[in-house]
Amino acid sequence: MKEHNLTEGNIIKTLLLFAVPFLVANILQSLYGAVDLFVVGRYCTAESVAAISTGTQVTQIVTSLATGLTLGGTILIGQYTGSRDMLRVKQTIGTMLTVFAGFALILTALMLGFERPLLMLLATPAESFALTMQYVAICAAGNLFICGYNALAAVLRGYGDSVRPMIFVGVACVLNIALDLLFVAVFGLGVAGTALATVISQAASMVIAIVYLKKKDFIFDFKFKSFCPVKELAVRLAKVGIPISFQELMVRISFLYLAAVMNRCGVYAAAVVGISSKYDVFAMLSATSMASALAAITAQNMGAGKIKRARQSLWYGMGFALSVSCLFFLWAQLNPQSMIRVFADEANIVAAGVPFFRSCSYDYIMVAMVFCLNGYLNGRQKTVWTMVSCSAGALLLRIPMVYLFGKYFADDLGKLGMIAPIVSGIMALYTLIYVLHENRGQGQAKEAEA
Residue 209, Cα to own-chain centre: how many angstroms? Predict the structure, then answer.
């Protein structure tokens, strides 16, 4: 296997060829939770739907932490690949995989140990509490596979390959759908069945990736002696990855607080938030995919000294992300009922969801800008700034707004739905100003050198 060069050729073509497999892979990966909710919504009760909704909010913490930390690996591998330092690429892969194995085990122990207090903090409805406990506990057992797959995907993407991660997750997605139907529709395992299906499919994805790469003579041989962390690289991974992971955690905590406020409004409101979160993922997939692609492309081009090409990739990428997000925004504005009924037909859930969907869908547009700008900044290793930015958005904007809106507009889901777009709009504005300032300063420094 050879690395894929992201520093040459037509910018738009290179960007799309690299980003589209990202998008497809993220769509497939998002189907894990969506299929869980869809199958449970068709074959189980509203309490089961609420359990999946709340449980997914918790398990997404793990995914956010894993993807944040592994993105640090993508950035470093991309830079070393761009500068043609293949020894460092191999050492970085070994260091990242070893560190993440330990991280996954620690995370599993923490989730199992603090599961009940966390769900109580989230004001999980009493009717669905036991089912939510069951779902989270089973998913926690699969943390090693979540971290393992994300680490391998990050390695390949930093290496310039976004196609193989798409294939690996595609196989897992098909397996997850089949097992969901088997465990829930046939065996009647309910919420536990969906969690088991997710864990098994994630394990399959990781194993398939390792077997395939070994057969293709990948730069990393997966032999025991190769899993030897290099201290210097572990420190660099931490410096780049921890800020990204921390910002993801802060954002996720702020959304958990929103879920807790909505849970106090009852089972139907909890179900609406769960369904909305699935659409948030799909509507923002173009933005999240482009952000990840921009991090890798920017890293390689910065490593190769092609600063102008990295900047141009940002603006092309943002245009693509916004065009897709606008389609979901229009759907939510024109016919939110059809969106809700994909997952639940119950009249009370639909009625509660319409005003929430119409207001929160403005976030699809705002957050697309935030993600793309942050992806570009991460690729430039400005991860401390993105950490501060996202943490401030979560802690200083979103959480206070959730508190105030929850206090004064607790029965108005339409107003509660406006929290996310207001916060993202403010973040998009100050992040854009920062990027323009950095680009201008970098351009002036280059002119001075000349």
Answer: 20
Residue spans per domain, the chain: 11-444
> For residues 125 and 266, is the Cβ–Cβ distance under 8 A?
yes
CB neighbour class for 407 (10 Å; exposed up to 12, middle 13-18, buried from 19)? exposed
What tokens does 120 get? Answer: 């109580």
The predicted-structure confidence for 217-243, as pLDDT tens digits, reads as follows 777 888 888 888 888 888 888 887 777
- Cβ atoms of 25 and 153 within 8 Å: the answer is yes
242 and 69 Cβ atoms separated by less than 8 Å: yes
**One-letter amino acid identity for 218?**
F
One-letter amino acid at 398 equals R
Q: Which residue has the tokens 């995989």?
A: 97
Distance CA 16, CA 3 (A): 17
pLDDT digits (tens, 9 = 90+) for 286-327: 887 888 788 888 887 887 788 888 888 899 989 988 988 899
Residue whose C-alpha is closest to residue 236's, from 392, 56, 383, 17? 383
- The one-letter code for the residue type at 170 is G
pTM given for the model: 0.64
